[in-house]
Amino acid sequence: MDAALLINAIAELIGEAGHVATGALSPIPMAASMLARRRSGGKMRVTVLGSRRNSRFTGGAKELFDSAAQGRIDVFFLSGAQIDGEANINLLSIGDYEKPKVRFSGSFGSPYLYMLVPRVILFRPEHDRRALVPKVDFISAPGWSEPEVYRPGGPAALVTGKCLFDWRKDERRFALRSAHPGEDAASIRAATGFDYAEPATVPTTPVPDAALREEIRDLVRSEVAEVYPRFAEEFAV
Amino acid sequence: MTESLQELVARIPDGAMLVVPPDYSGVAIAATRALLERGVRDLHVVASPSSGIQSDLLIAAGCVRTMEAAAVTLGEFGVAPAFNAAVRAGSIRMLDSTCPALHAALNAAEKGLPFIPLRGLIGSDVLRHRPDWKTIQNPFSDTPDPIVLLPAIRPDIALFHAAAADREGNVWVGRRLELSVMAHAARQTLVTVERVLDTCFFDREELVPGVLPSLYVTAIAVAERGAWPLGIDEEYEPDAEAQARYAKGALFMETV
Question: Where is average pLDDT lowest: A52-56, B116-120, B136-140?
């Protein structure tokens, strides 16, 4: 997996935003946010859960959630042990809820932030039919809601180790946006357990050049290592 | 003014509802080890909002009946082994929650309220598995607007670790105001600190916003490096190696 490619791709998906926040277990989204902030000339505000250097909150742990509910966070990141074609995400367990085959850590803030943050970027590096499934075993957070449910937020895109998908809200399905080098329409279709839209010609995800890779390494060293020492160590190798 | 760790944890009865902070916020690991030695039983542990090695240690030792959390995880170091095994075996009762719900339910207790509404949640299986959470129509809206009500969480005990207390028993929590929320919500608050300073934090205006007043503090014990192998702001970093060893399957701290 080319982590620098993913970091660059996510930074491009973030694009312009006033305030980007990253949650638990999110070293690559954090690095991407740092890159997007640098590209904004430092104008973009980034809040990293668990960081002291990259948090300007003073209201305690609840402030992230309170500010999200007020529309003060534009972009957030979520993942899923399973993600399905309706963008439902499962962070909790595989199998029966009462007697799970596999148990993960838990749903964190997803049942709330997925519904309140306007652009949520889903990130799941492992791309196979176990991860991208027709229907999740447990809905930590739903991909869409009935019209009467208050929901200013939702999915914007899905980034995997093989490709980028856009989320088409009106069609309630993903659309292939680009394939990473070494992948093509057929290999992605074969590895994906849900149906999605696909363009006639599939573009290739941009590959970072040497200078950009060095810039990303520098950001990982100087910023990400504070919160994710293990990731930074492995990334440096 | 302070007491021993053993005296401190003797205040936590079997069956207590115990609220604990997330790994980055000041976790009282030394006190947790003393609690394990005491052999406490049937705890209802509330993570505010997630927990790691602390809850895993308590679960491994059979001290927990109910775990209420948005997540139990060793973070970068992987799954919490005892927690995962216990959930799969059905040997603990798991109340799956979500971070903002735990914060909000503690906020309700701070205000002395019986419940609090919260956005989001609708359509999540977390809500479906929480019969104690109720969805109502927003009574202030003329159009359909379902919203979830959460019962307040009023823990018996809040337990955490902080850098310092002053001679009056005020505790410096700095930016970790989630610790203050826990203390406001709980009936009793037990704190371990790195040190007690012969000063009064209220005499220094710039410190005051980060002070938990002694009004909310039941008892304090000194425990140097009391969060290890986790860290504490401006004191010491988390010990990555020790946590990695724990994650690899060492179920008790003696082997860390």
Answer: A52-56
Q: Does the CB of B149 have a partner CB in chain A at under 8 Å?
A: no
**Closest chain B C-alpha to A227 CA, distance in angstroms:** 9
Count A/B contacts: CB-CB distance under 8 Å. Answer: 153
Pick the CATH number of B2-98+153-248 from 3.30.230.30, 3.30.200.20, 3.40.1080.10, 2.60.40.1190: 3.40.1080.10
Residue of A54, A103, A104, A139 for testing the chain B interface, max B β-carbons within 10 Å: A103
For an interface test with A, the pick among B19, B79, B87 (most A C-beta atoms closer than 10 Å) comes out as B87
Q: What angle do CA A63, A111, B27 make, to 5 degrees?
A: 50
pLDDT band, residue B251 (cuts 50/70/90): low
A150·B96 Cβ contact <8 A: no
Q: Determine the pLDDT at residue A50.
A: 84
Who has greater pLDDT, A235 or B223? B223
Mean per-residue pLDDT over chain A, rounded: 96
Distance to chain A for B37, nearest Cα, Å: 26
